[in-house]
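job 3f2a | input accepted
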Amino acid sequence: MSERGHDSAESAAMASFPKAHCRVVASQTFEDNAYVLLDTGSPGQPYLYGSSCHRRDGQWFEAGSSNGPGWAQTSHDPDLGTLTFWGDAPAGVDNLRIEFDGRISEKPVRNGAYFQIWWRVPAPTKWPRIVAVHENGVWKAESEFGLALRVRIARGHGRGGIA
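job 3f2a | predicted structure (163 res):
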């Protein structure tokens, strides 16, 4: 993490990566917090990486990062935090339905990834889940596991030992 502030959350999140191998996939800000989803992979082999950022005195700083979605405390209240849910989506999928806490939301796929964030929520006992994808003009039932498997196969990684 850099101690030098940045003009944007995106710049703060990208500071520790070579510019040639890092681009912003999605970003969302809430008050003085932000979450930035990056692609740090090589061309044709995306690698998603998430970064939590905070603003102090008008400058953005990276607060933590991870190669997977999850929940993290982001305020002085230990019971509240930010829940992120993101991942790769195969070509042709342009929208997802995600169920969390009894509600279903629709999120567009952008730059080959889906991205959903909930601010100031308690740590979940049940995680968000994909329930459907919009592909070729039709909604189809789908799961996060099924979507991830389709991405692996499309990238030539085969079934990865899955029976």
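job 3f2a | The chain has two domains: 1-68, 70-157.
job 3f2a | closed
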